[in-house]
Amino acid sequence: MTLPMAPLISIIIPNHNGGATLGNCLHAAFASRYANFEVLVVDDCSADNSLDIIRDFPRCKLHRLQCHAGAAVARNTGARHSAGEILFFTDADCLLEPDALERAAAAIALHGPEAVIGGTYTLRPHDPGFFSLFQSAFIHYSETKHLKNPDYIASHALVISAVNFRKSGGFPEKFMPIIEDVELSHRLRKNGYRLVMEPAILVRHIFNFTFVSSLRNAFRKSCYWTRYSLQNRDLLADSGTASRELKTNVVAWFVVFSLFVIGHIFQEVAWLMPVPILCAGNIILNRALLATFLRAAGPGFMLAAALYYLLVYPPAVGAGAAVGIVLYLKKGLR
Predict the structure, then answer these.
(1) 157 and 104 within one domain
(2) Domain with 24 in it: what CATH number?
(3) Per DSSP, what are the bridge partners of residue 88?
(4) Which stretch of DSSP H or E encloses residue 299?
(5) What is the pTM of this model?
(6) Per the domain annotation, does 289 fall within a domain?
(7) E strands present in the chain
(8) Integer distance in angstroms from the first to the last C-alpha of the chain?
(9) What are the tens digits of pLDDT across the range 236-289?
(10) In terms of domains, do 193 and 249 share one?
């Protein structure tokens, strides 16, 4: 009996000045237990030591863009130069788990070539630190809520038939940053492809987040998400990290803050009476996320992450959303 040969998987990694993490990324990719794969790095005009790092991996195929064009162009370029039947998109700050390619091939075989398969981050990131751990656990939970019908597949672990990717036209190259994968996912679904999350396909992210960079990331993502969601008319959708829990958390924070301000202005304690109910309801709504924090690093981290998520994170997300609304009214999606 002749066993079918494992399909060739092309790992496609866009890179722009990612030298600090690229070496770890490539080490992880080449440590895969899956035998039949290639690794392509598309360098988007890096000015750091990225090219020297890539040259340390003779099996890595390098393609260089002539001018800085963005991650979407780099991913599409990698796809054009790939030889694999299956494309596995990831990022230069992501480390594939050793079994990620095996699980990707198995998922395509199970769900069929018309499926677009998504993986997610490990609960714990590669780098230590509270803010990186918070982000990894938060994204892991958010992306694995709706396994059979996710709203989008993130480009840090996106698996798709090469033929179908080329038919789709690829990532949008003249679009807002950060959410090109959301637009591609929505376009694929409209064209009849199925989005499926496979939580066992895991990549370990390197965030190196600090307090400031964590909140800056929340602001920036919220800004772009809001602009896109207004255009797409799905502002209230339960969409991955732009979840209904997060949106409710932000609204609850601003309502509670407003009640405290009004109570202080009018010197009336009665304005604060709804606060305990709002806070309790918000905690109940977010209980599954809090349970994920507990699973990630125990009760101490859960308590700290809950306080950060409930009290500190919402203003950054809300401010980003407000700026996104203003920019949408001025510019749309340009």
Answers:
(1) yes
(2) 3.90.550.10
(3) 11, 159
(4) helix 287-307
(5) 0.94
(6) yes
(7) 9-15, 37-43, 60-64, 86-89, 94-96, 115-121, 158-161, 194-205
(8) 56
(9) 888 888 899 999 999 999 999 999 999 999 999 999 999 999 999 999 999 999
(10) no
